[in-house]
## 1
Amino acid sequence: MTAQSEDFAAWYNEVVFKAGLVDRGPAKGTMVIRPYGYRLWELLQSELDRRIKDTGHENAYFPLLIPESYLGRESEHVEGFSPELAVVTRAGGKELEEPLVVRPTSETIIGEMMAKWISSHRDLPLLLNQWANVVRWELRPRMFLRTTEFLWQEGHAAHVDEAAARRETMLALDIYREVARELAAIPVVPGEKTPGERFAGAVATYTIEGMMRDGRALQSGTSHYLGTKFASAFDIRFTSELGREELCHTASWV
């Protein structure tokens, strides 16, 4: 084994392979999670899922394929994700009328559904969670840390005002911090990302950063206050108690 002090990245790579947690997939940047590794995922997933449900969020599932035009509705969002997108242009032996993006994250498709489901303040807050796979074209894959396809959870919520959406954002960050520290025994530091490091389209992004043995930080969970940006792009509105039509304030966390 390579010593941690000699090359931490090489040591990590050797551990996950020799422990039988993972193997390389046939497509570039993909991984096969072996039974031992997947059992670790199941244990962490079940505990995180319980905590999420305790906050009132309900699990749902949204499509893997997203119309390309959806991402274009929020300019910062499409600009931020464009380099990482996998796009389907042919299906059933024919060119598609509109290309379909393989889900990199679900703010856009969930925003479209929220606009259909929300009409009154009585429909709020709308608290959703999804367990899914996502695809982001990764040039330098690392097993479990950053691969082309990976498993995750994404929480999405719509609220009546900024205060409620920001409370949701910080609640999610605290859940991630607790699971990382108390269950996985990973030392993490919570904090806010700089404007240049924010999630594409967010007003504010908060993360827990895992502190690695070599002194580097690894982004390990993120929570975003999205303001009314996505609500405006997808027309997510509600009628307030005073009878006024207002935009929802949304949040997401992964």
## 2
Amino acid sequence: MRADWFSIHKKEALSKAGYPNITEQFTNTPVKRFLEVIENLSKDSGINVHFAAEKQDEAALRLLFVRADENFKDVGDYYQLNPDGSFAKIANRIDVEELKNNYKKGIKTVLDKTTDATYGETELVHFNKETISEIRREIAYQAARGTVTGITTKILSLGDEETEERIARDKKDRILQRLTILFTYVDKSNQETDFETIDRERYLGTIAIQNQGIVKGLVAAKSQGVSGLNSGNPIPPPPPRGEI
């Protein structure tokens, strides 16, 4: 559903504006390298993942991973995730701000018109400490089992209120119709796969635990659930305390 929303409402607008190469599937990173970067950034904190671009008119995105403090602010060095799956450390704040501004003044100006959200299109996705820790542990567990060799980072879009019925009642227009990030698995055949396929028993157990914690008043999660690998919060504005 979120991939479809991205293709219909985001990719089409970007193509018409001269950005035809921005696709849902961003990149595939070897699982060992992905975990190395995530573990370095999130040992005792959350992380922010910024959308960025090398040039304002460049038809390709970059993602900047950085440690985030309790106020959702960036702390320390940035790691740029490139379309080839590699991570490059960027310590120069001037370079970082240029990368962020290129996205804001180019791609974001197009995408602002594709959402009814008060704050416009997403600038970064925040993963709080608990969520990124869960993601890190789950990926490490599957990597240790030998079931996955890589992580695909995908760019998707949340839908409208009707589509996102499980979350919309509380979050309203704060994050609806806005870009977000999804991490998925790559198997030993170098093909994208999912949690249910590689470990169905653990998948069903995770869903059961998550369904028990669904906030009263939200629509129940029928037979499906979420893996936790796409539980980031699009910003601005910053999320309320305790929200995942």
## 3
Amino acid sequence: MTLAARWTKFDSRFLELVIGLGLLLVGLFQALFPILGVTGPFPPIDTRDVDLRSTAQVPRLASGGTVLRGTHHAELAVGDPGLWDRVLLAAPEVLRAALIIVILSVLLRMAATFRTGDVFVPANVRRLFAISTAVLLLGIAAPAFDMLTTNALVSGTPLEDAVEIGFTVRASTVLLAVLIAALAGAFGHGARLRADTEGLV
């Protein structure tokens, strides 16, 4: 039995199982549970990590509400969050989960092509570009959405001037998206070579 045959019959199934398990875990813990926290059955998310403009003391609100704990890097805690607060707190987590689910779903479809032993197909080129786009959104759109929801949470509260509203794009995430796009280009070249070779036979 060749190495390719062993990969086709066992490794690809195992890879699909691992990706499927990742989909299940992300779907449950990063998407479904936060959504259930917004709608009521589960305890809602009530904190958010934020950066402060300075180390100045911020008075704790006497009757619940929004408070800060920490100095440069602090935890924004919303006491007894209403529906809109729960939506704002959970939305960035759900967005990240949705993007990760897209990535894992596309990877699962790619893994299915390993069973045939032919990964250089046009569909995989499109899938890699889709993964690259999702990774880029994960590095840019998700932090920006985090910033917008944090601003909405503190707007009009005593903490508005204390919390640093901004986001940082991780160069490593952008680089990873570019590398995946380059891999998609390589897959496209491989698919064209394969098509040209079949045309000569």
